[in-house]
């Protein structure tokens, strides 16, 4: 410690001495591959490589270490080392131990590399995917948007790229404008505020937030950041990206809410005033059915995992018929029909959903499942599926006399004249009066003169139900022949 009386000249001489000593120190030499590759020489060589790895400061230094490890690996391959005794589990395995050491050092090289600009870009892209794939609540959407703004601002501070700074300014402007709009809307009329798919009214669409992140990622990826020269900048960007990921994880999404909270937040209960039905979900469902709110019925079907509510949601669609047919409800019901759900098939018939015909035709020949066939035949008839005329006509000859009448009735509902001959054959020769009566009914539904004449031939039939259909066909012919 100096007492204040030290001579400056003495201090200068000490510095010169230190510099001279440093100059006299020998420079570190690179590891030298041993002339003879033995366990001992290779171990010593790997020790030197490990020391070189610890001293590495740049990507070039790490490249040199990797090259040394490649040399070590080649030397080990050519080395004449003893094989372990297979009968002794505890026997030494020098080759295996050296291979493990090389692998460990390679991992050390990879851990020491970077970080790179590519790592930042990957983190941003991951965040953008999270933003796009998550269903946010209104509050969660707002927090996610703020997380994006915070990240872009941090990126603009970290990297001196004008385009990133412009992205930050644009993000600020958009979010500020939305905040002002929301404040004005709330002041004007809170009850009129609506919620879009992205979250709160006026919220920045997720697509715009994702586009902003993509733009920043492109600018960072093209900024030419060097892992050595720009290490601090890249580290700052990674820290900002990690914060973005953390903020998105903390933002509220629909899955974080209880089911009744989700329904309440999405306005499911808003239709309720005074009600007497319990549970309240059922009461609300009835109101949504009356008002034709298909999306709300689908919301209940998806959210309320009880057989009671599932049945009532599907029954609501069945009662609504064509009124309940939307792209979303079709998607739901076609998915169920694809799993042989007879209730869904029945509803698709009530909706006259032509989109279901291809799926339903696959079930026409399911003779081992007559209940599925009955639902399918009726649905095809209600849809008016002309593509089903041939397959259904063929079913007039199937063995099950409980299913054959459904095939005949379906042909009548479709009303295609190609069904007249097979229906007339069934009326003439089927052993079941139920089938014959159904064929007569179907011919009356087709309603052409040929069809009515085919049915009217049996007006004197011994079977009352067949005779009834024939008499109605004869009356229709007589009415058509009588001048107005």
Automatic annotation (TrEMBL):
Alphabetized UniProt keyword annotations: Lyase
Q: Name one GO molecular function term.
A: lyase activity
Q: Which residues form a coiled coil?
A: none
Annotated Acidic residues bias: 1-27, 55-92
UniProt xrefs under InterPro entries: ARM-like (IPR011989), ARM-type_fold (IPR016024), PBS_lyase_HEAT (IPR004155)
| Annotated SMART domains | EZ_HEAT
What Pfam families would the database entry show?
A: HEAT_2
Source species of the chain: Halorubrum halodurans
Its recorded name reads: Phycocyanobilin lyase
Which taxonomic lineage does the organism of this UniProt entry have? Archaea, Methanobacteriati, Methanobacteriota, Stenosarchaea group, Halobacteria
Location of region: Disordered: 1-40, 55-99
Q: Which Gene3D superfamilies match?
A: Leucine-rich Repeat Variant
């Amino acid at each position: 410690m100096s007492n204040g009386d030290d001579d400056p000249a003495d201090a200068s001489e000490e510095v010169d001495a230190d510099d001279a000593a440093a100059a006299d120190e020998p420079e570190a030499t690179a590891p030298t591959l041993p002339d003879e590759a033995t366990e001992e020489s290779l171990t010593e060589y790997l020790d030197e490589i490990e020391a070189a790895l610890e001293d590495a400061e740049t990507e070039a230094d790490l490249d040199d270490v990797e090259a040394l490890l490649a040399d070590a690996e080649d030397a080990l391959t050519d080395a004449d080392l003893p094989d372990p005794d297979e009968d002794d589990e505890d026997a030494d395995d020098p080759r295996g131990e050296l291979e493990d050491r090389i692998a460990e050092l390679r991992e050390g090289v990879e851990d020491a590399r970077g970080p790179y600009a590519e790592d930042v870009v990957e983190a941003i892209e991951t965040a953008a995917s999270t933003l796009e794939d998550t269903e946010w609540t209104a509050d969660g959407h707002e927090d996610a948007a703020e997380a994006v703004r915070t990240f872009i601002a941090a990126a603009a501070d970290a990297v001196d790229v004008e385009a990133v700074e412009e992205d930050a300014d644009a993000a600020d402007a958009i979010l500020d404008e939305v905040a002002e709009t929301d404040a004005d809307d709330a002041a004007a009329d809170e009850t009129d505020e609506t919620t879009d798919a992205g979250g709160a009214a006026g919220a920045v669409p997720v697509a715009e937030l994702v586009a902003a992140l993509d733009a920043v990622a492109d600018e960072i990826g093209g900024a030419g950041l060097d892992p050595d020269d720009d290490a601090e900048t890249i580290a700052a960007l990674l820290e900002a990206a990690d914060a973005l990921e953390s903020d998105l994880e903390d933002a509220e999404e629909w899955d974080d809410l209880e089911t009744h909270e989700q329904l309440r937040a999405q306005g499911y209960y808003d239709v309720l005033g005074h009600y007497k039905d319990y549970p309240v979900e059922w009461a609300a469902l009835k109101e949504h059915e009356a008002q034709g709110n298909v999306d709300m019925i689908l919301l209940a079907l998806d959210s309320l995992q009880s057989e009671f509510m599932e049945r009532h949601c599907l029954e609501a669609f069945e009662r609504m018929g064509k009124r309940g047919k939307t792209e979303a409800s079709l998607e739901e019901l076609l998915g169920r029909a694809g799993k042989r759900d007879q209730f869904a098939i029945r509803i698709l018939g009530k909706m006259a959903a032509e989109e279901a015909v291809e799926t339903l035709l696959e079930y026409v020949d399911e003779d081992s499942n007559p209940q599925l066939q009955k639902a399918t035949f009726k649905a095809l008839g209600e849809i008016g599926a002309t593509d089903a005329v041939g397959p259904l006509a063929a079913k007039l000859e199937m063995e099950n006399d409980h299913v054959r009448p459904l095939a005949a009735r379906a042909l009548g509902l479709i009303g295609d004249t190609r069904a007249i001959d097979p229906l007339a054959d069934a009326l003439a020769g089927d052993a079941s009066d139920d089938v014959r009566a159904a064929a007569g009914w179907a011919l009356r539904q087709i309603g052409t003169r040929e069809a009515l004449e085919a049915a009217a031939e049996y007006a004197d039939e011994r079977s009352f139900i067949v005779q009834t259909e024939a008499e109605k066909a004869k009356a229709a012919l007589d009415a058509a022949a009588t001048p107005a």
